[in-house]
Amino acid sequence: xxxxxxGLYITGKEKLHEYLQEILxxxxxYGKNLDALYDLLSTDDRxxxxxxxxxxxxxxxxxxxxxxxxxxxxxxxxxxxNVSVEFEIEDEEE
Length: 94
Description:
alpha/beta, 4 helices, 94 residues
């Protein structure tokens, strides 16, 4: 499953976690924080490909939380072979 995290549309921590809960079909009890995200992703057996798009915008919207979020995804990808994290390079001509 491809999960695109687009910094143009993710404008805060709450939006990030709401989007993840919806797209990944997390249960209602999802804590909407990075610890809860890590817990659910590390026990999820689906193949997941996270694509970070417009990272600079994501960094503006989330600040340091963006780094912590990316670190969480990397930590899960190191534990699980079927989870990957990619960054889309923006085309300067766009």
